[in-house]
Design goal:
heterodimer, A: 94 residues, alpha+beta, Enolase-like, domain 1, 3-stranded antiparallel β-sheet, 3 helices, 5 strands, B: 255 residues, alpha/beta, BirA Bifunctional Protein, domain 2, 8-stranded mixed β-sheet, 3-stranded mixed β-sheet, 10 helices, 40% helix, 27% strand, globular
Chain lengths: 94, 255
C-alpha cells in the first residue's frame, strides 16, 4: 500500500492511500482538508478510479468526467492535484 | 423594512448535539419551516471536529481524547480538524436560503460575503481582522477564525469558529502531529500562526461581549435585524434522531 501527502500551494492538503494491481488502481482512499461539493461525490470519485490504469492522462479524464457528471465544485484543490498525489502514492507503493 | 432573521444562542452542548442541530435547522429551512438563522453555540465537553473528507485516525489522537474527555465528531462540511475548547471558542452557524441575495454561485465569493459579518464584529471590538482566502479570518496574518460551508437542497449552511482564548497544549495533545519531535515546537510556535480575541486585545473578553459585537457585525454586514427566537418542535425532534448518526463510529470513522 502506498501513501502520499500533497500540500497544494495556496490551497489545502490532499492525502492518498492506494493499493495498486498490475498497473491499475485496486483500492484508493482520498482524504484531506479540501472542499468538494456536493460532498458525497467523493465516493463516486474513488469508485470511478478503481480499476483504472495509473496513467496521468487516464486518471485526469476519469476525475474530470465525475466532476462533470456530478456537477462538482472543488475549492483548495484541483483535479491535477489529485492526480499528482495519486502518482506520488503509487511511487511509494511497497 | 429591514429583513429579519432568527437568532439562536443554544449555549453549551456536546459535539453530537451541536452538529445534529446545525443539520436539523438546515433541513427545517429546506422545508421552509423556519426563517434564515444565525446560531451561536459552545462545546461541553470540549471537542474536536474533523472535516467531511478527513480520516479520524489520521487527525485525532483518540486515546488522548478519552483521557482528557474530549468528544470527537465528523462534520458534514469539508475543511480541517478543529479543537473546540469549552472556554476558548465561540462557534457560529448561518443557515440561509441559497437564492438569498447574500449567496453567490461562487463558493469563494460566498465565504467572503458571509465572513464579512465576523470581520465587522471583530473590527467593532477593535481587532483589525481581515478575510483570507479560502475560508479564514486573520489578524496580521495570524488565524483567529475558520469557517466551512455546504449546500444542500436549496440552502447554505456555513459554520465556523471564533477563537476567544488559545489552549495550544491541549490542542496539540488532541490533534495528531506529523511526528512527536515537533509537538513541543508546534505548541511553542502557535503564537506565530494563531491568535485570539483576548490575546490580541491583551485583556479578558467575556463571551457576552464577544457575542454582542458579532451580532452587530451580522446585522451591519448583512443589512438584517436578528430577532431572538426559539427552536421549533420539528428541529428538536429531528436533532434527537440525527444525534445517533453523529455519535456513531460508522459516521465518525468512515474514512
Amino acid at each position: 500500500m502506498g501513501r502520499a501527502l500533497l500540500k497544494v500551494k495556496g490551497g489545502k492538503l490532499v492525502k492518498v492511500q492506494l493499493t495498486r494491481g498490475k498497473g491499475e488502481i485496486q483500492k484508493i482512499k482520498i482524504t484531506g482538508d479540501f472542499f468538494l461539493h456536493p460532498e458525497e461525490a467523493i465516493d463516486a470519485l474513488e469508485q470511478a478510479l478503481i480499476g483504472k490504469p495509473l496513467k496521468e492522462e487516464d486518471m485526469l479524464q476519469v476525475i474530470k468526467n465525475v466532476i462533470r457528471e456530478k456537477n462538482v465544485t472543488l475549492l483548495g484543490v484541483s483535479p491535477e492535484d489529485f492526480v499528482k498525489c495519486i502518482l506520488m502514492a503509487c511511487d511509494r507503493n511497497g | 423594512m429591514v429583513e429579519e432573521w432568527r437568532f439562536l444562542d443554544t449555549g453549551l452542548h456536546n459535539a453530537f448535539y451541536n452538529m445534529a442541530l446545525d443539520e436539523a435547522i438546515a433541513i427545517a429551512k429546506t422545508k421552509n419551516l423556519v426563517p434564515n438563522t444565525v446560531r451561536f453555540y459552545r462545546w461541553q465537553p470540549s471537542a474536536v471536529s474533523i472535516g467531511y473528507f478527513q480520516s479520524m485516525e489520521d487527525e485525532v489522537d483518540i486515546a488522548a481524547c478519552n483521557e482528557w474527555r474530549v468528544d470527537y465528531v465528523r462534520r458534514v462540511t469539508g475543511g480541517g480538524a478543529v479543537y473546540h475548547d469549552k472556554e476558548g471558542e465561540l462557534t457560529y452557524s448561518i443557515i440561509v436560503a441559497e437564492n438569498h441575495r447574500l449567496i453567490s454561485k461562487d463558493f469563494q465569493e460566498t465565504y467572503q460575503t458571509l465572513c464579512s459579518s465576523l470581520v465587522q464584529g471583530l473590527n467593532l471590538l477593535g481587532i483589525p481582522a481581515k478575510f483570507k482566502q479560502i475560508n479564514d479570518i486573520v489578524v496580521s496574518e495570524k488565524k483567529i477564525s475558520g469557517s466551512a460551508q455546504t449546500r444542500k437542497m436549496g440552502i447554505v449552511l456555513q459554520h465556523g469558529t471564533i477563537l476567544r482564548r488559545v489552549n495550544p497544549t491541549l490542542m496539540f495533545t488532541i490533534l495528531k502531529v506529523p511526528n512527536e519531535k515537533i509537538r513541543d515546537k508546534l505548541i511553542k510556535n502557535v503564537d506565530e500562526r494563531v491568535t485570539s480575541v483576548e490575546r490580541y486585545l491583551g485583556k479578558e473578553v467575556s463571551f457576552e461581549e464577544l457575542k454582542k459585537a458579532l451580532i452587530n457585525g451580522f446585522e451591519k454586514a448583512f443589512q438584517i435585524k436578528l430577532i431572538e427566537g426559539q427552536l421549533i418542535d420539528f428541529e428538536k425532534n429531528l436533532t434527537d434522531k440525527i444525534i445517533k448518526k453523529y455519535s456513531s463510529d460508522d459516521w465518525n470513522f468512515r474514512k
